[in-house]
Amino acid sequence: MRQLSADDIEALSVGAWILGAGGGGSPYHGLLNMRRLYREGARISLMQPDDLEDDDDVAVVSVMGAPLVIMERLVDARLIARAVEAMQEHIGRRFRAVMAIEIGGGNGMQPLMVAAHLGIPVVDADAMGRAYPEAQMTSFAVAGLAPAPLTSVDPRGTEAVISRAPTWKWMERASRKLCTEFGSIAATCKAPRTGAEVKRWGISGTTSQAIRLGEAVHSAYRRHEDPIEAILLQERGKRLFEGKVTAVERRTTEGFLRGRTGIQGLGADRDAAIEIEFQNEWLVVWRDGAPMASTPELICVIDNDTGEAIGTEMIRYGQRVTVIALPSPPIFLTPAGLGYVGPRAFGYDFDFRSVFGA
Amino acid sequence: MNRLGIDVGGTNTDATLVADGRILSAIKVPTTEDVTSGIVAAMRAVIAKAGVRVDAVMIGTTHFVNAVVQRRHLAPVAAIRIGLPATTGLPPFTDWPDDLALPVAGGSWMVEGGHDYDGRRFMPLDSAAVRAAARDIRARGITQAAVTAMFSPLTQEDEAAVADILREEIPGISVTCSHMLGGIGLLERENAAVLNAAIIPLAQETISGFERAMRETGIAAPLYITQNDGTVAAASQAAMFPVFSFASGPTNSMRGAAYLSRVQNAVVVDVGGTTADFGHLHTGFPRQANASVRVGGVRTLFRMPDVLSIGLGGGSLIDPDNAGIGPRSVGYRLTQEALAFGGDKLTMTDIAVAAGLVDIGDRSRVRHLARGLVDAVLARAASMLEEHVDRMKTEAGDVVLIAVGGGAFLVPDRLAGVREVVRLEHGGCANAVGAAIAQVSGEVDQVFQGLARDAALAQARDIAERRAVGAGAAADSLSLVEAEDIPIAYLPGNAIRVRVKVVGDIA
Q: What does the alpha-carbon distance between residue A131 and residue B364 come to, in Å, rounded to a whole number?
């Protein structure tokens, strides 16, 4: 167990945004909440999954919703804490600790806000190792763990419990409806996990991974070094392509942001071009009609000038970018994992092949 | 119609008189500490030269943004947020630099109310709490208020109601409503509203100064202030919304370039002493930046031109060892320090003189420069220009490049990705010309739901046109200059965010 410093939290927000793989929403509001809570004296402890007892209860949290709505409703630390309290009331037990469902993007900051209000530690783990568009795309779902119960709360005082759901997909559908009624945003506490489940099926170490990644980027800035190189070194990632954005196409279907972006090569990649397709997050990199990289490996598009990751909502013509791939948590590379988050799970007709070779 | 355009910059005040498409006169005088006397001098000179009556005066100034950057002349502001019980985690003045919050943060009051993205009410407005806040603000003697409600760009009802209560309860209060300033993004829009409120007293004083200068010069004509988007607002309107004048400098250059060249779609480069500023003209107006913009260290969201600056100007220092250019520059000391003017610093201007691109200073003083160095520096400057022209493009293909500013001679006629380089007779005063020819605009940035794309665009256009007429445009002169729709992830019912802008001539 270690106490997180204010600098750790700054670094976490940078790392979480990169691990968002183009989606997950901005961690900015979560960071602002945490700065305020730290000024007010709160301190967060980060605990390793191995330090959990098998029968400990762990809360798993996320805010579901549209980034645009978050821009107006803002992120409120007390609301996500309330979702966890509602779950405690439902199950009649207190949580030992709290963890994120997805480390990537704004949700990577949510467990810290719960921890600050309820005085429990954050578990150094999540269930995605990145961001994914749908709630069933988790290691817990791959493991076949129970999808229910779930609490979903609104700041005006409406609180709902979905006490049963036959599948993760049904849980996603029912909770999405609640979220829509609440104003397309809801603070949720997902199905509680036991210490044993977190140790066996959680993706360990992703909070500290995000912190180290953010630190590496910060330190590259301080030394005037290439932040992209720092990301690759830190995450054992691979540089896929460097170029200029020449086309962006977006559409919303079924509540998701889908589309593609074309990138014309520069430097060593001059005379080549790629295309990246996305559904909230970057999904597949195409080159000469063949997949060059795909989910579940993380595809990140980094701005060559600022070294910052670019979200699928923000990419635009003319940006100079480097496309990189970062390794996926091993559980998603199993046949069961690929069934949930491999290319076919997103409707593509090809088998996953790692960019990192055999 | 004889239009007098003035651009008050940090170094120079430019003035020009434009009559029915002709530049009657153009002048450049040093900006003065008190601003007004420099303007009086410029007005007198340009009118004397043209010898005509003035029908309208348009002034662009960097005065307001400088107040924020330098933390001077700022008034304390009461920030009223309508959105409880949400948004409490991030109260007003969150993420403000301390030295700016100190003079500006006059207190915050948060009350229940606001709307959702689909126009449904989020919470009933707590009018009693607003009244209590008003009495508190009055007791504290604060005279500027900024009101921000959740999703107010879609539904202005609550901001308007709160403004009414404040005016009832606090005699003489000045109220800025956030929906007048920006789109979706509560924190950024609220920041813009607070900054606006903080500089209203300065704006009123400055604009009275302009009016005084006009009286001293004997000009009896309406005064307009130029805006970030290349249009103008009547002086009384501009005094209430000074943030809209923050970035009018680069905008005026680009608009002037469009006017002088008659080119509507092009990349513009304004080469000055220290930097080259790139912008993109789209149907005659500068393209706006898409993301949030920090002003004086505060995140805001109102529309600013998308401008890219690099350290390439006439005064840029040259490193003879590696043919490196800038970013350091001799700036306004060019005519003392550059080699060609008898100084001892090797500048970009010296390279241009040696290469015969421009005939200023004493060419014999740069004759010793090695041909290889001169060529290498010019090649580097060309590739810097090429790269940044390309960055400003919105689609593939060659573009027209308009070169303006005192250092336009540094732009070669042939550049990769450029179809044609356009140079202008009055290019040095493009900014004042841009001010002189400015029109009036109306804008909308709103989320539409359950409407087909065309219907949403039509509805947005209708709102924008009504706003333009309200701001003083002639209804029969309106034209659409910008229409953009962005589908929104996660929201049901094919929600799209539509941005539309129309402009028209002054009525």
A: 65
- pLDDT lower than 50: segments of chain B: none
- Any CB–CB contact under 8 A between B294 and chain A? no
- Close Cβ partners of B383 (under 8 Å, ≥ 6 residues apart): none
Query: What angle, rounded to 10 degrees, do the helices at B127-139 and B157-169 form?
Result: 40
Helix (H/G/I), strand (E/B), else coil: B69: helix
The closest of B505, B431, B484 to B257, measured between CA atoms, is B431
Query: Is the Cβ of B447 closer than 8 Å to some Cβ of chain A?
Result: yes
What chain B residue is nearest to A153 in terms of C-alpha separation?
Answer: B86
Q: Using an 8 Å CB-CB cutoff, list chain B residues near A78.
A: 88-89
Chain B interface, best mutation among A72, A305, A306, by max B CB count within 10 A: A72
CB-nearest to A65 from B291, B396, B490 is: B490
The answer to whether B483 contacts chain A (CB < 8 Å) is no
Report, in angstroms and rounded to the nearest whole number, the Rg of chain A calculated over CA atoms.
Answer: 19
**CB < 8 Å to A33, chain B:** 89-90
Query: What is the predicted pLDDT for the residue at B443?
Result: 83
Distance, in Å, from the CA atom of B231 to the CA atom of B238, rounded to the nearest integer, reads: 11
pLDDT in tens, A1-59: 999 999 999 999 999 999 999 998 899 999 999 999 999 999 999 999 999 999 999 99
- Region A139-156: what's the mean pLDDT? 97
Burial of B72 (0-12, 13-18, 19+ CB in 10 A): exposed
What sign does the dihedral B212-B215-B217-B221 (CA atoms) show? Answer: positive
Check: CB of residue A106 under 8 Å from CB of residue A27.
yes
Q: Using an 8 Å CB-CB cutoff, list chain B residues near A66.
A: 117, 488-491
CB distance A107 to A101 below 8 Å: yes
SS3 content of chain B, % helix, strand, coil (to 5): 40, 30, 35
Tokens 């001293």, residue located: B216
Residue from the list B396, B496, B497 with its beta carbon closest to the beta carbon of A246: B396
The residue of B490, B498, B499 whose CB has the most chain A CBs within 10 angstroms, and thus the best one to mutate to test that interface, is B490
Cβ–Cβ under 8 Å, residues B30 and B37: no
Would you state the pLDDT for residue B229?
Answer: 80
Q: Which residues of chain B neighbour A180 with C-beta distances below 8 Å?
A: 492
Is the confidence at residue A251, as pLDDT, over 90? Answer: no
| Chain A contact present for B95, CB below 8 A | yes
Residues in A touching B393 (Cβ below 8 Å) = 317-318
ipTM over 0.95: no
Give the span between the Cα atoms of B275 and B373, in whole angstroms: 21
Percent of chain A with pLDDT over 70: 99
Residue A270 CB neighbours (<10 A): 10
Task: Compute how many other C-beta atoms are within 10 angstroms of the C-beta atom of residue A344.
Answer: 13
Task: Tell me the two tokens of residue B348.
Answer: 């970009």
pLDDT at B291: 64
Residue A358 has pLDDT above 80, yes or no: no
Closest CA to B406 of B499, B276, B302, B319: B276
Structure tokens at B350: 């010296």
Q: Which is it for the CA torsion A13, A19, A22, A25, positive or negative?
A: negative
* Tens digits of residue pLDDT in B260-279: 999 989 999 988 878 888 99
Q: Which residues of B touch A270 (CB under 8 A)?
A: none
Give the closest-approach CA distance of B83 to chain A in angstroms.
8
Closest CB from B89, B117, B491 relative to A33 = B89
Residue B331 to residue B274: CA distance in whole angstroms: 6
pLDDT at A314: 83
B392 CB near a chain A CB, below 8 Å? yes
Confidence of residue A94 (pLDDT cuts 50, 70, 90): very high
Contact B436, B426 (CB under 8 A): no
